[in-house]
Amino acid sequence: MLPAVSPELAAAVKDVGAADVMVAIPAYNNEASISSVMRTVAEGLSTFFADRNPLVTSLYGMKLRQPIGGDFGMSGAFIDKLEKQDVWDVFVGQFGIDVWMTISAITGGSRICQANLGAKVHNAKDPAFSLGPMYLQVISTVFRSMTKFADIWRDVKAVQDVPVKGTSMPWEAEPIPISVTRLVEEFNLGMAHFSSLYREILSDDSFSRLEQIARSEVCYPEGYCNFHMPPDLWARIVYDIAVVFNCWQGDTHKLIDLSSPLYFGQVASIANRTQSLEHEQTEMVVDDILRAFVNEKVYLEQRWKQLGAGEVCSM
Q: Is 94 helix (H, G, I), strand (E, B) or coil?
């Protein structure tokens, strides 16, 4: 929920309303610490993405802070376009709706801005215990867009900033409890039980690096785990799964569900990197992840062509 409407928030909404845009996408001021980063990780491409959603950004070239924020401002013309827009995934009517609208706006050439709407406050949940249906539904919607809009994202070679309207309002993040040991435990269980699947869907290099991480991580009784997943490896893992999803003849929902232990490993890695950082330093960690997704897009294009994504996998 959003906090009570303040004069500052009302002014921000008015500023957006006066802008010459078709779609205003929220840019919440959940700045600060690991709590804000983990909230966006746990919600939003959840999952595969930290703040600023690196997959959507790298695919479609728009640097958006919260492309699944839930509070959109839309012109009548854009609503008319949505009524005619193809619903390319069954989950568009559920948690996939926000990212569907965002991708529809970008690929349809709509004029977009971001709107500073203050803080969006959520109930604090440990991501190790609260994955929920959003993980499957948002990821499926984004992954399925990749076949529909392959001609668009393959031509995107650079990322551009999206203008922000409204004045940023101060807010202090609330802490979110995170059990790093539980996250690492889930990662290890996945590696133990699903390694044959991971070996099949990931590149040889990515799987080998995952095995090395699993062998070398150490957890201590105090609750700390020496666990790190490099951003470039995470980007390649996401791209590998996205490619296979788009040519998989089996149950794609199961494919996404079985990838969740790898997500838990990424969350543990982000938690370790950001737990003692100030806001500016945390933003640098997030930017590292985004930069990795952009830099590894060449890898995505190679794997997409190599496996015949959008058709039937040549695996």
A: coil
Contact 133, 254 (CB under 8 A): no
Q: What is the pTM of this model?
A: 0.84
Q: 218-219 and 225-226 as β-strands: parallel, antiparallel, unpaired?
A: antiparallel
How crowded is the C-beta side of 314, counted as CA atoms within 13 Å?
Answer: 7
Q: What is the pLDDT of residue 186?
A: 92
Neighbouring C-beta atoms of residue 19, cutoff 10 Å: 15
pLDDT at 41: 43
pLDDT at residue 178, as a whole number: 75
Query: Per the domain annotation, does 312 fall within a domain?
Result: no
The pLDDT averaged over each successive group of 10 residues in the chain (315 residues) is: 50 56 66 42 39 82 81 83 81 86 91 77 54 80 94 94 76 66 92 96 96 89 84 96 93 92 91 78 83 96 92 69
Q: Return the CA Rg of the chain.
A: 19
Instruction: Note whether residue 313 is domain-resident.
Output: no
- The residue segments making up the domain with residue 183 are 7-307
Which burial class, exposed, middle or buried, applies to 193 when counting CB atoms under 10 A from its CB (0-12, 13-18, 19+)? exposed
CA angle 276, 55, 193 (to 5 degrees): 75
Instruction: For residue 223, tell me if it sits in a domain.
Output: yes
Q: Tell me, yes or no, whether 127 lies in a domain.
A: yes
Count of structural domains within the chain: 1
Query: At a CB cut-off of 8 Å and minimum separation 6, what does 69 contact?
Result: 25, 26, 27, 28, 98, 120
Distance of CA 199 to the CA centre of its chain: 23
